[in-house]
Automatic annotation (TrEMBL):
It is found in: Membrane. The chain crosses the membrane at residues 20-42, 62-81, 87-105, 126-147, 159-176, 229-247. Its main location: membrane. GO terms for cellular component: endoplasmic reticulum; membrane. Keywords: Membrane, Transmembrane, Transmembrane helix. It comes from the Eukaryota. The lineage of its organism: Eukaryota, Viridiplantae, Streptophyta, Embryophyta, Tracheophyta. One of its GO terms (molecular function) is glucosaminyl-phosphatidylinositol O-acyltransferase activity. It is a multi-pass membrane protein. GO terms for biological process: GPI anchor biosynthetic process; protein localization to plasma membrane. This is GPI-anchored wall transfer protein.
Length: 332
């Protein structure tokens, strides 16, 4: 049995129950949600591509670009993820028709800022922005009833929008890493690991201290008692620094790790991870977060090799998010 003391704050228990024991939605619905965001991005850059190009030239153009981002991306995404959740498929069809209409009116499908040597950087930047935006939106919205419970993180098995989060960040770190760009480091592996993980560890301990001091609700079934998202990213970085393989072979190693971890799960590890029993040692208290490192590490290595496909377009943001979500399913 769980021998750790329980909080006496009744509101904390209610908030934890509000985000617990959720079954999730379907793979098709999650894909539709992501496609809606990708279509909004395409509409933004197709309908107002010139504003994007001029955004850095003056303060007025920059403010106009920010306003358009809010109108075309932020507000519609917020509505689709909340009050329009029941019409997600209709929204996707409508956005697709709008995109076809605007493309036909312009008689071209050119995105000037996406052409040339900076196309890859622009596409990856779009993916990073969307990942951060969706993550912040979901984390803030999940505590409110207007946010569908089907989109919150699943308890044991299942699929949902918020299950995509950590996998997307891991993939985002992979495609922008020095390893993926074939940048050699003169530092030893332990110095490189220290440099890359120190900020993440500081953020992880800061979050741990703040949640403990404020008696904030923490669903231990997600990461464990003391583990959190930042520790997961730091752990993946440490493992990558210890075993640094060339980018062209990282996908093979990542696939082997994912297959091996999945086999371990199906042969009994999942029973241990899903049980409520915890010991007093660090591994037992944080078993969910610690053991998931193997899945995220494999995902990271696959993402490093994915970046070797240098010709990106803005649509790749959708496929990168879908890849991160698919790999997340098999990482835990």
């Amino acid at each position: 049995m769980d021998s750790f003391p329980k909080s006496l704050n009744p509101n904390k228990h209610l908030r934890e129950q509000f985000v617990s024991n959720l079954p999730g939605s379907s793979m098709l619905e999650v894909s539709a949600l992501l496609n809606n965001v990708a279509l909004l991005m395409l509409l933004r850059h197709t309908f107002c591509s010139q504003t994007v190009n001029d955004a850095c030239r003056s303060l007025k153009s920059y403010l106009a670009s920010v306003a358009l981002d809010y109108v075309f991306l932020v507000l519609p995404t917020l509505l689709i993820f909340t009050v329009l959740a029941e019409w997600v498929y209709i929204c996707m069809i409508g956005l697709l028709l709008l995109l076809v209409f605007f493309t036909a009116v312009k008689r071209t499908y050119s995105l000037p800022y996406m052409e040339g040597p900076n196309a890859s950087r622009a596409s990856i930047s779009s993916y990073r922005v969307v990942t951060m935006f969706i993550t912040c939106l979901c984390i803030l919205a999940v505590d409110f009833r207007i946010y569908p419970r089907d989109y919150a993180k699943t308890e044991t098995y299942g699929t949902s929008l918020m299950d995509l989060g950590v996998g997307s960040f891991v993939l985002m770190n992979a495609v922008t890493s020095r390893q993926a760009r074939n940048i050699k480091s003169s530092m030893s592996w332990w110095k490189a690991a220290f440099k890359s993980t120190t900020p993440l560890l500081l953020l992880g301990f800061a979050r741990l201290a703040s949640t403990l001091s404020l008696d904030y609700q923490v669903h231990v079934g997600e990461y464990g008692v003391n583990w959190n998202f930042f520790f997961t990213l730091a752990g993946v970085s440490i493992l990558t620094s210890i075993l640094n393989v060339p980018a062209e072979y990282s996908g093979i190693l990542g696939s082997v790790i994912l297959v091996g971890y999945q086999s371990w799960l199906t042969n009994g590890l999942n029973v241990y991870l899903l049980s409520n029993e915890r010991g007093t040692d660090v591994i037992s208290r944080n078993k969910e977060g610690i053991f998931s490192l193997f899945g995220y590490w494999g995902m990271y290595l696959v993402g490093v090799q994915t970046d070797m496909l240098k010709e990106f377009h803005v649509e790749c943001a959708t496929w990168l998010m879908l890849l991160g979500w698919w790999l997340k399913i098999y990482s835990y």
